[in-house]
Amino acid sequence: MNYKAVLYILGKIFIILGALMLLPFSIAVYYNLNGFPEASYKSFIIPIVILIVSGIALTLKKPKSFSIYSKEGFVICGLGWIIMSVLGALPFVISGCIPNFIDAVFETASGFTTTGSTILTEIHSLPKSILFWRSFTHWIGGMGILSFMIAIVPKAKGNSMFIMKAEVPGPSASKVVSKIADSARILYIIYFVMTIIEILVLFFGSRITGDNIRLFDCVVNAFATAGTGGFSVLNNSIAGYQSPFTEWVLIVFMFLFGVNFNLYFFLLTKKVSNIFKDEELRGYIIINLSAVILITLNIYSMYGNLSTAVRDSFFSVNTVMSTTGFCTADFNQWPTFSKVILIILMCIGCSAGSTGGGLKVVRLELFIKQMICDLKQSLRPHAVMNVRLNGKTVDKKIMKSVSSYLNIYVITLVVSVFLISLDNFDPTTSFTSVIACLNNIGPGLEAVGPVGNFAEFSVLSKLVLIFDMLAGRLELLPILLLFNPNTWRKAK
Predict the structure, then answer these.
(1) What is the pLDDT of residues 222-268, one digit of tens each?
(2) What pTM was estimated for this model as a whole?
(3) Which end of the chain lies in a sparser environment, N or C, as judged by fewer CB atoms within 10 Å?
(4) Phi and psi at residue 271, to the nearest 5°
């Protein structure tokens, strides 16, 4: 373990996070100067000073060796996200908006991991700077703070690919160009431009339709959509705007941010054939549309209005499958058939290489293809069967990692539900609360449904769910390996 390199890179992360926190600080200054009730400046000044001073202290002396391999990459990723969640919680505590520290860490971890689960029962009355920071954590966590560091820090040395692999969701991390730093930079530019486009469409479109949604709301909703997080600034989420236009815009962008970002690079470089060949994208579209059709048919009798039923179906399917977690309809009240479909979508999630969570469509496809190969091979034992994706043979190591991931996922899910059950909630609440956090969805069913929250859970359950959110966002291994003693031993 190269401890000096690990600490040095963690120091860089602290400085970047402190610099990013200047944005909500400026929001607090603006509203204070204009006579609006706002959180105290110190809500952000104290954590900014802590982050930047700590970062400078850790980066004053450069390590002699920047050698970073898988072990260091996982440790940097795991520790970095835990520390971000802890220090990122300070504005909530200092401002008094969330005085309980565990609750504040829960909210912050939910933000950075783009989960969107909340312990808050009253949101609309919070200071604008706190609401901005709450949604901004989604945007930061969407593409990942480590990927951001690789993109902006000149000559981020030391095999950055191992850091990228630890943070990027999916069975494997790929580069769009030869250099990993350039890849991270390109993907972040795409991410930034798509966010700006969504803000402009929401703001100017709402003027045309007469909804006149505030610029502040357009920005924070775009942050939450881009990061597929789902924190809203209204108590009843997107339903509070009563704007079909806004809902359709969010449906489109939730879908788009659930797509592998590498495909957008292919689109920009006019490699359109690569997009059409992508089996994961086809699977994502087919699952999405099939779920919308089935749910629409199932809930139509409740609505009596086809357009509203279709819109609510599209919104709920995309908010769940992209793991965003916005709400326009209380699907707790829907028939069991529709709720079961949504639970399945919660587990599947969206595409690898997107900002969303879940198991990922590509893993489901690989698992099904492997199952078919195994069935065929049982009839023809001597035949050589290979899993193919996008016309190429999938490496055995990737197939092994998919199998291992699913095993670890199921074990983590079972243990978490077992611990959550100590709170004595009903089985649906206990199960879907873990599903919602482990897959970074946000809402579950029953007590943690679209109009519910996680405020009533015990401290133990909140700690378990914080672990699940971090483990789910980082694809399990970076967090789990922190508890392995071998991770911390120096190589012989």
Answers:
(1) 999 999 998 999 988 899 999 999 999 999 999 999 999 889 988 88
(2) 0.91
(3) C
(4) -100, 60
